[in-house]
Design a protein that fits this description.
It contains 2 helices and 44 strands. It has about 725 residues and is mainly beta.
Amino acid sequence: MSLSLSAQVITGHVYELDKKKKVPLEGAMIRELGFPNGSLTDSSGKFSINVNLIPAELEVSFVSFDKDTIHVEDSKTTYEVVLRPAAGSLGKTEINRRRKTYGVRSIDPKTTINLNEREFQKAACCNLSESFENAPAIDVSFTDAVTGTKQIKMLGLDGVYTSITREFMPSVRGLNSFYGLSFIPAAWVNGIQITKGAGSVVNGFESMTGQINIEMKKPFGEEDFMLDQFVSESGRSETDLMIRKDINLHLATSLFGRFSTRPLEMDRNNDGFMDMPTGNQFQVMNRWQFYTDKGYEGQLNASYNNDSRKAGQIGDSPNYGVNIENEQFDVWGKLGKANKKKPYQSFGSQYAFNTISSQTVYGNDSNQKVLKTKGRTAYANVMHQSIIGNTNHGYKAGVSLLSDWVEESYDTFQFDRIEHTLGSFVEYTWKPDTTWIVVVGARGDYSSIFGFFPTARIHAKKVLNKGNTTVRLSAGNGRRTANYFAQNQNILIASREMIVNTRNGETPGLLQERSNNAGISVHHKFKLTYMPSELQVDFFRTAFLDELLVNRETSGQTILQPLENSTIANSAQVQLDVQPMRRTEIRLAYRMFDVSSVYNGERMQKPLIAQHRGFVNLTQRNRKKWQLSTTVQLYGKQRLPGFEKVGSEMKTEYSPVFMLLNAQLSKKTKKSIEYYLGVENLFNRRQNNPINGAENPYGADFDAAMVWGPIFGRMIYGGFRYRITK
């Protein structure tokens, strides 16, 4: 047996046995005995580790399994390990698998939550704007009382400050930030990763409060056919279809289709306005995926979406209407090359092109106001990944280009821009042992409008208490170019005078928002008496250096004003996950938001944000594949826009505290069909008068954007999901 002092790359796979079938183990630890280096298996059970000494011994371990040892010699560089469950731990292993539908991503140094398809199927979701009801990290609310649009908030701030990517490429941003999430069918999505705080510099500079990455169903996926049908008592119907085909061993394609309609005009609160808009949406997507034996792999995808809605007053001769037309076309792809001789080394590239046009008409006849937006976005990102010496030191480096052509007009305002941003980045990962991971990233970008600007971010993870406790730290800065009207379309459904302020001679409608973000997260696994439990506590602070503030504190006016050092958002969350029985899961959460801005010279709490929120989700299953999911959400009081200063005190109004209860019962059959029946807002809680001045939509008091609660009330829905797997 020879002895080698040079480093050697060892690869392999780690499996477990399930009814004599090998199943990959993701997250298994491989470490070289006597040295600090280590590696984790990916979703296919694959690992790669750079050993320091030949012969070597590699210890393979995974929670609830007996450890195993690989004896490495010169002549062999690829190994396969099948771990056996530890005595008395089979129950634990099964529990761990089920809970992967929702949970903190253990191997990630960032505070990242995995949300898979089974998790957001618990809610009445047909698109992604409705898919976060059971994710306490995300808040979902109506933007106004007319268009029926839902938007998200993260860390107490609007979703425009969250980088929303599709397979780590820019997706919901810019001109489609208002409706963008509603254009992504939930049935087409395989999983979602929610990252709190600053994201990776590899994915750009726009992540300010977090990142939501959407993984779509891929052509080389497990499902050959999918049909989803949703109906509700409001007349809404959603149909989603997917057909997948292997062309050959190395090439596959999938075709997606969607049709959504809401034909009924409904006015439950008798204010003369439709509670939800009527209209149709049609969408189609085609995906291609390939790989070669030489390590090349890639994708090419295209999608088209057409959305038409009508809202406003009900009846044969409505006095005030809102007509919305959206059309969007996307092409995106990836091309990469893995080095088979050096598995730690790879090259990757991403490309995307998007066009979107939108027109919204507010009012009728001579009182019309029209919002028109039209834009194109081109994106490219090229990256190289490798190590420095050994697997304890890794890096990613690359260059990116982001170009936006934007046309935005409303009433007498016209804001157009062409912005090209060229940047380069490097991200270094240090893993001194199996308990530490530190990731430091930096990028420099040059904007054709704003010039050069730097971005720096750091993430660190420390594992304590024999792997049961994990502490994560993060800090970084981010920025984005504001779209004055496209991202604030809800405020246009009002009779308020629109005022756009500038400062220091800046071009009206042109502003780059900037913020800093820092946070800490602690994740602890333990047993509460006999029950497997997880406790997650985190705190994040976001401070804006420059922002576009929407000021509606003065009666009859909406002021869009650039401000320095205004909004400060503190977000704290405590979450407890408990499994009292084998097929029962309980998720409890409390969130506190302290979000303040400066309005008319006074620092106040931002309006329409519940400072305190409670959350309870109970999921129960049985052996016959019945499942009952119940969610209760408690909303604290929210400050309503508009205040009066009396002496040294502020006089303002608040919304009432209210609670929502949602429930869904589902049943899987042996014929690959799942039926479900559910109810949203069981107690029929709603905001009785969501539209101020609804009786006179052209009067001075008309405002449909003062929404703090549900509008439609109780909603019963049902449907089925049909899958054919290969």
